[in-house]
Each structure stands twice: as C-alpha cells, then as structure tokens.
Amino acid sequence: MAKAPTLRTALAAALLLVQTSAEAPPRTGAAHRPQCSGRRISSWSVDSRQTTAFSRYGEDNTRVDDWTGGDGTHSVRLPDGRTLWLFSDTFLDRIQPPPNPQGAHHRWRTADGGGTPLLRHNSAVLMSRSGRPERTLTGGTPAAPGPFFPDPPGGGWRWPVQAAVEPRTPGAREKVVRVLLWRRTPGTGSWVFGAPHSTEVATLSLPGLHLEGIRATVGPGTAHDPGRRVLYGAAAVARGGWTYVFGGDDPPAAPASSAYLARVPAGRLADRAGWRFWDGARWRLRPERARPVLPADGQRGVGSAFTVLPPGAGTARRGGAGRPGAWLLLTMDTGGGGAAGLRTITGYWACAPQGPWHGPLGHLTPPRPPTAEPRRVAVYNPQAHPEFTAHGTLLLSYDINWLGPPGVPAGDRVNDEVELYRPRFLRVRTTHAAP
Fold first, then answer.
1. Are 179 and 202 in contact, with CB atoms under 8 Å apart?
2. Phi-psi region of 255 (alpha: psi -120 to 50; beta: other; left: phi over 0)
3. pTM attached to this predicted model
4. Distance in angstroms (rounded) separating the CA atoms of residues 360 and 365
5. Which of 25, 45, 283, 314 lies 20 to 30 A from 269 at CA?
6. CA 173 – CA 113 distance, rounded (Å)
C-alpha cells in the first residue's frame, strides 16, 4: 500500500468530522500577554494551476519510468530557479484511459506492458523555472528504477521530508542540497506501515543533484518502543543563522503526536555534532533530553507530519497593534471525532519556534476528488511551500488517499483512480488573531 507516515498515525488518531467554525481558546500561556500578534487561517482558494501541472505530468505516457502519483510532497527552491519536489511512496507506471477492465470510470495505472504498477519508497521530481514538472529522479537503472534515496542495508526504507539549500560547510561559498530523511523499518500490528527508526540527512550536489551520501543525525537511542522515537524533519526553517528542525513522535493508535524542536547552524545539517535539542529551557546536545514544544494533550496535538512557517510567510510581516508577527504551525486537526475520514486542517501560533504554542485557531476543509465512496477519501500531510508565496498568499499542498474498508487493499483503489494518490494545492491567506 502506498502511503506516507501521516496516514497511519492520523487515521488511528482522528477519523474526523468536519469541524465547526468555533475556535478554541489559546492552548498555553493564556495568563501572559504574548509579545507578538496571534495568527490564524483566514481564507483559502483552490490553486488549480499547481494541481493540474502534476496531473498533466503524471499522465504523460511519453515517459513510462516517471512519476504518476505519490505522497509526502515537500519542495525546495534551487539557486538556479528550479524547484526540487520530494515524494515518499511513489508510483512509476503508465496511465490508461477509462474504462478499465473492471468497469471503473477513472484513469488507471498499469506497469509498462501491463501488470502491477511499480511502487518505490521515494522519488524526486524536478520542476523547471517556469513551473513545469519535467523529470523524475530515481535510483537503480532505467530498466529497473529504484528509490532515489536507496533502501538502507538490513531492511527498511527512507522517506524524504524537508530539504534546504545551505553552504557545504559553514561559511563556504559552495552550496549543496540537504534532504532530511525518515528511516523506517518493517513492522506489524500498529506498525503495519513501518516503525520509526531514525533521522538521516542526504547531501545532493548542485547543480547536478547527484546523491553524494547519507549520514545519520538522530538515531533511535535508548527508546526501544518505536512510538517514543522522534523523527525530525516535518519542518525545517532557516532563521538568523540557524535551521530550526521540527519533529514528532508517532505513538501507535494515539489521537495525536507531540511536536519537538532541534536547531542546527547553517551548513551543518549533515553534521550530528551541530544538532541541539530544546528541553523546555535550553538547547541540549543529547536528543533524549528533548521535551515537546507542543505536547499532545488528550486529542489535541499534531499529526505525524505538519508544517511550520516563520513570521511573514503568507501574511504581512508586522503583527497587529505594531507587534511582530507570529510563527504558524499547520496540521491535521486531531481533535475531531467520528468516522468520516481525515478532513480538516488547523493551525497553532507562537512568538518563537520553541513556543509556547497557542491554538488551535482557524480551520479549512480542502476539497477532495469525486469518488463513489467519498467518506473513504482521506486528506493528510499539509505542507507549505513558501517559495511559491504570491500576493500575500501561501501555497499549501495536501495529499489524498483512500481508506478501507478493512481487508480491501488501498493500493488496488488508488491504482484504479489515479486522482486518489496525487497532491492537490490551495492558496491560503492568514491573518492576525487576538492573543
């Protein structure tokens, strides 16, 4: 089954009903007046241009070793103006027109020459300066493509998350791309889609994007329970000479995950010695000393994938009443109930990356593609793409998948309906909220 880590955790945590427009009071720190203006989702619209660009690329059968669908959906702008898009589980196959032999009325996937489509654990798509996806990066050979970031020896796989362009070493003129990777291992039961193992960082050359190597940065440590391990890279924000790297734990069947924070000097993402972890009061060398910056509290918290924006992205730089703007964290709303599937995105805000975080405030319910069983279509993994900010609006992607029923492989359904396993895009505007 093709999926990203958010889907398992978020499904177990929150089969959401559509939320009402009522907003919760601040999560923490209500007794003290924050030093910045609050921040919330205020409006959104569909960005059909980006959604259509990936649909057209995925359905172009002139290349049959390329991307036709994937989730994860992270991006990084390269120095020459191109954009590198990173995907987790990825289909590499051919698209067939409807109807298929089973009578579906949607475009469907097969391998080149027929049969089961290729599924690899990750890929990358290179987008031109003009915004057109034009090439898929994979490993292996053209005849037998593999994941771009190879599976680790001894079993398991790698899912790419956030990436950053930074100096090869601190102060160097040469730039490279660092890609944060979530390493996962085979599991059963609650870990049927893989157990969290560790965080790694890959280095890609510029401009050729050749994979130079992969280094471990945050290992499993002494946490024998995979649900207690924190994988870093859900978000990575460059600010003031540091890269702030957010991560989360992945407790099985829990309603929500907790968010954690590390920071690394610019140019040292691949250097484990440069990482420091927030323990609630100071930065620590040892990752096991880290404490949540946004702890799961009952059903509230974050999904195992979320996105974080610094002040100024998607709104005016200044806050209300002359105060600075706030950081914004967007996640699936894990506080919902029922069995309607994943539906709603919400936000938290803070005056500093380490918090305290307030919320949830604001929400949006993105559109899903039409299908015969809409209640089984899941929305997950909201990701911001600040390099595409325009006119004060933020580009936000979200992934689509199909859930159940139990015993029916989701992979069969997403093969038969290609719209169920591709990113979709919104234009989101945020506004200041009363602290």
1. yes
2. alpha
3. 0.88
4. 15
5. 314
6. 47
List the domain range (segments joined by +) for residue 183: 5-433
Write out pLDDT tens, residues 121-167.
999 999 999 999 999 999 998 888 999 999 999 889 999 999 999 99
* pLDDT reading at 29 higher than 90: no
Which contacts of 144-150 are long-range, i.e. CB under 8 A and separated by 24 or more positions? Answer: 145/65, 145/92, 145/118, 145/120, 146/120, 147/90, 147/120, 147/121, 147/122, 147/123, 148/122, 148/123, 148/124, 148/211, 149/121, 149/122, 149/179, 149/181, 149/202, 149/211, 149/214
Any idea what the CATH number is for the domain that residue 253 is in?
Answer: 2.115.10
Nearest residue to 378 (alpha-carbon basis) of 403, 397, 357, 358: 403
Residue 408, pLDDT score: 61
Beta bridge partner(s), residue 180 = 201
Question: Tokens at residue 177, please?
Answer: 């791309």
**Within 13 Å, how many C-alpha atoms sit on residue 95's CB side?**
22
Neighbours of 31 (CB within 10 A): 6
In contact, 268 and 170? CB cutoff 8 Å = yes
Residue the block writes with tokens 């299908």: 371
Alpha-carbon distance 90 to 393, whole Å?
29
CA gap 413, 108 in Å, rounded = 9
Within a 13 Å sphere around the CA of 144, how many CA atoms are in the beta-carbon half? Answer: 1
Ranking 10-14, 69-73, 151-155, 219-223 by mean pLDDT, the lowest is 10-14
Other beta carbons within 10 angstroms of residue 261's beta carbon come to 26
Q: Which residue has the tokens 């009952």?
A: 298
- Three-class secondary structure assignment of 368-404: CCCCCCHHHEEEEEEEECHHHCECCEEEEEEEEEECC
Nearest to 259 by CA among 250, 272, 269: 250
CB 123 within 8 A of CB 67: yes
Asked if residue 70 lies in contact with residue 53, where contact means CB atoms within 8 angstroms, the answer is no
pLDDT for position 255: 74
Structure token pair of residue 301: 């918290």
Shortest CA distance to 354 belongs to which of 278, 290, 287? 278
Total domains in the chain come to 1
DSSP letters, 150-170, are PPPTTS-EEEEEEEEEEESST
CA distance readout (Å), 59 to 11, 67, 88, 105, 145: 29, 9, 19, 16, 18
Written as one letter, the residue type at 99 is: P
